[in-house]
Amino acid sequence: MKNLLLKLHETNFLTKNELLYLLTNIDKECEKELFRLSDLTRQKYYSNKVYFRGLIEFSNYCKNTCKYCGLRSQNKNVERYRLSTQEILNCCDDGYKMGLRTFVLQSGEDAYFTEDMLVVIAKRIKDEFPDVALTYSIGEKSKTCYEKLFNAGADRFLLRHESANRNLYEGLHPNMSFENRLNCLKNLKSIGYQAGSGFIVGLPDQTDEIIAEDLSLLKKLDLQMVGIGPFVPQSDTPLCDCKSGSSNKTLLCLAIVRLLLPKTLIPATTALAVVSKDGWINGVKIAANVIMLNLSPPSAKDKYRIYNGKNSLPDSAKESLNSTIDKLNKEGFVADMSKGNYPDWERNDNYEYDA
Ligand code: SAM
Ligand code: SF4
Q1: Is residue 147 within 6 Å of ligand 2 at its C-beta?
Q2: Contact 251, 36 (CB under 8 A)
């Protein structure tokens, strides 16, 4: 096991079988060593900086029926909402005044927001706040749509692969295809986005072997951002009676990803804070270097119920920012409100678009 950790630290690579061996056989002593090596690696590229992003949940309509998610179209117990362009800009304005320089626009897959509308939103944000980075997290779109959004000023895109195992993926995502998910990620990367993927830990029927596949896929994709969070049940979904994913297993995965992809930007997810009180700060101490601050208006926040417990977290963004910074400072970290690009990243605006 110690040799495996050494190899992971020195070469930033393990085979799928080695990852499986590590996941199933790691003991407390080796886990401590893994966390130490992961922390060292994060410090090497980011020192003690933690980047803050402003999250705007602009629509909870979704055409999909992912079995774990409270926004699935078949959930009739959710009050649906959409923010107008002006409301989105107001959220950006609040965040900008707090010092935030990255906005993450997230929603269900909502066809009401056409390509043209998403382009206008991106342009208006970039016109009004030229020094910010803009991330979209709006699901699967055509390559042309991704191109148009990039051209309009979107810099980053988050699209988790959710599970690298085709059977598990397709069982959890009726009418969606694993191929298309991977194709979208390939397209995002080739267009020149800082792209992010990731997966859910503790999904029903997920084995260590499947997690090893998830980790290997992330290494292969070699993206700039990786989001990994535990599964949290949502009362109005088919998985309502399943148990939450383990925070410890999530931390293990975060540490392994930090070593597989040393420079990648990794958020300490809200789901981690929901399954364990100290989950997010432990995430930061071990591997993560990004915190998402929710800028959505209170009425929207309450309706964006992707999993149970999400809304019991601190309410106002300003309070949340201050208390999070305090906690980080106590642990020796400093908040960084800048754009926080992937190291040495340069946006390529000379991308040749498919006609
Ligand atoms: N619709 C877009 C998409 O699916 O990419 C973005 C919004 S979706 C709510 C964002 C992420 O929430 C998903 O990628 C999924 O991993 C996560 N999520 C949804 N339900 C969850 C649950 N019950 N537990 C943990 N994570 C969940
Ligand atoms: Fe829709 Fe995303 Fe939820 Fe799936 S995870 S139901 S695509 S919001």
Answers
A1: no
A2: no
CATH of residue 253? 3.20.20.70
147 lies in a domain?
yes
- Report d(CA 335, CA 343) in Å as an integer: 17
**Calpha distance 337→342 (Å, rounded):** 14
Q: Check if 100 has its Cβ closer than 6 Å to any atom of ligand 2.
A: no
Ligand 1 touching residue 232 (CB < 6 A): yes
In a domain, 254, yes or no: yes
Task: Give the chain's domain count.
Answer: 1
DSSP state of 245: P
Q: What is the pLDDT of residues 73-122, one digit of tens each?
A: 999 999 999 999 999 999 999 999 999 999 999 999 999 999 999 999 99
Q: Which of 58, 306, 307 to mutate to test the pocket of ligand 2 (most atoms within 8 A of CB)?
A: 306
Helix (H) or strand (E) holding 196: strand 194-201
In ligand 1, which atom is closest to the CA atom of 199? 16
Q: Residue 280 is part of which domain span?
A: 13-336
* pLDDT greater than 90 at residue 143: yes
Asked if 192 and 351 count as a contact pair (C-beta separation under 8 A), the reply is yes
**Which ligand is located closest to the Cα atom of residue 159?**
1
- pLDDT digit string, tens, across residues 277-315: 888 899 999 999 999 999 999 989 889 999 998 765 555
- CA dist., res. 220 & res. 339, Å (int): 26
| Ligand 1 pocket residue status of 306, Cβ below 6 Å | yes
* Residue 160, ligand 1, Cβ within 6 A: yes
Ligand lying nearest the CA atom of residue 72: 2
Domain membership flag for residue 215: yes
pLDDT tens profile 60-87: 999 999 999 999 999 999 999 999 999 9
For residue 348, being part of any structural domain is answered with: no
